Amino acid sequence: MDPLATFIAGLLASLGLKVPDWVAMGLSWVIGSVIVFTIVLAIGGVFTYAFRKIFARMGHRPGPNRVGPGGILQFLADGAKLISKEDIRPAKADRMAWTAAVYVSVVFTVMAWAPLPWSEQAIFTNAGAGVLLILAMGAIAPLAEMLAGWGSNNKYSLFGGVRAAALDVSYEIPMLFCVASIVLMVGSLDTNAIVRGQHGVWFVLPQIIGFVIFFITALAKAGLAPTDLAESESELVSGFVTEYSGMRFGFLFVVLFSQAFFIGAMMTMLYLGGWQAPFGDQLPILNTFAGPFTAPLWFVLKCGLLSFVVFWVWVSLPRVRVDQYLATAWKVMLPLSIANFVLTAVLVKTGVLG
Amino acid sequence: MAKVDFANPRMPDGRAPTSQLMTLNMGPQHPSTHGVLRLKLLLDGEIVVDVEPVIGYLHRGSEKLAENMHWVKFIPLTDRMDYVSAMHNNHGYVLAVEKLLGGPEQNIVSERAEHIRVFAAELSRLCNHLFWMGTFMLDLGAITPLFYALRERETILGFLEELCGARLTFNYFRFGGVKYDLPDDPTYLPRIKEFLAKMPGHIAEYQKQLRQNDILVARLTGTGPLSREQALEWGITGPMLRATGVAHDLRKVAPYSVYKSLNFEVPTTTQSDCYGRLHVRWAEMVESVKILNQVVDRLANRNLEGIHLNPDYAGGKILRVKAKGEAYARIEHPKGEYGCHVIGDGKQNPSRVHVRAPSFANLQVIPLMARGQKIADLVASLGSIDIVLGDVDR
User: What are phi and psi of A205, to 5 degrees?
Assistant: First the structure.
């Protein structure tokens, strides 16, 4: 039984209800899913505000500052606006594909969050092959872009969908090789094991090549600038998002911003020691201050920092051309990531690493 | 504008296409067509096979309207042609009418007024190039440079507002001078000097951040090529022409106003692609600052003769008597050569006004620049031309 189920069983027992294990497990799945879903949407929502604030500060502007203190409630106002907007479906859209795209995008993005270790205990799906689960869920997400591109019956959307497909095959492979190098070092696909394996030395030092390649490919995977080629508003109007309005657009938008955090979370888990404090053990001061929340706090801090870098890159760089990205992915990043993988394998075998 | 045969398409090298081509309407509502331009694209995947620009969505018949209004009343309408650098439109039209009234040898415009005109025009040129840089970067997907550009543009617009009360459509030039003299505020010119001292640093800041950007260099180098011969053949002017290595600037080759007495260079480059155009415009901004420094010094130190507006011409009565015949004046607009042809027959209305708009002439070459390149390159090429649809359609 995972910790949440144990906690629920304990809670019910204290109320005088003795439930069998499978009920507690089932309840924990439902409650866990709701919690993960809420966290993703909340982070996505808050990040739309954070991005606008960062973007504004980098462009000498104050950013949103009308709704709530410092404009913090802006994203709720935006959400209310999007919900109340008309849901327009293009007349000749492929209804099935067009509708499914949003659900596929949201569901599989959220599912990828389940094996993320916020701390040793705070993990929603402690699957043995957690990393594989994340990568598999992440690999389905571009399918949503292709579905949207095809289903919208719009040439711009189609371009976006085709670009998403072309990009998908080119970033997925270098990314997998980067993750595989880490798995070699740890000898486990368990997300918590990877974090524990970084006790002392974070993997960013031995895997610096992988760190850089992973960052670039993750940007493309999330569809964030400078590699937001499936959306690229200056060329394709809005790419695969063009024909979505109202809350359908809202969901795609929130998913996009939650991806910024997810990139940070993945990189924190794989390269920056996950929930561990920078110098081996947790800093004592923070420990007394935050108590059991110390580990998640470190995790969120690191993710936040990396997300800031993602936004920073977003507002700083022009968009690459589609053929330029493909050329870089196939001719530079793929050989480098394979070389990194082989090097890691040799070093692990000879006992230098791992 | 060249027509494209969409029924029987041909590849850029004249062959019949081997795969099915796609027709795509880009615009008139599209984020990067800079207004209501429509481009009919023939695409082979991501590659642009041919382009046909369709214009006229912003046609307001300005030139025809001129025939039904007083000579003076057309000045505000010229503002609305190229609304990004309205001062120059004023200047071109006013110069043409003044030529009709007797030309520069008549001393219609005092030396002071000429200096104020150059002052306003060069500030406007800075605005135009800044705004162009920002929107061009936006076309390339870089969202922040626009706000850096607008930071300086706001300051300049503040100065222009103090000068003439407007920030976009200035309506400032008049036959015989300008509407208002410099503001009475004694800190006005020192504040401008202060700004001009800072401006080269700002330009260096843009260059530092954009020149060393690998993605930007890769996106712009070789994009939207236009040879010297093509540029001359199609009547391309302005920074587009100078980026092909032709040092053609009307302020030098056919000086008007007081440009002859001012010391400045005509920047050129032979790198005739989008990157070259970016460089030429940066260099032009530096030259504009140079010109402005000289003009402001003269306005501040030397007590320039004359008043800002010649009263004999301000009223417009003289137009009825003397505005007969034809005149053509041309100026170096930030976008290229701006020509204005006026015909008068002694009435209080012009009987014909025609504007040779730089945006219109420069837009013609978009098929030459875009054929065989990617859609993203087409967007960059279009941005590098610097068009304003108000100027194309009029």
Answer: -75, -55
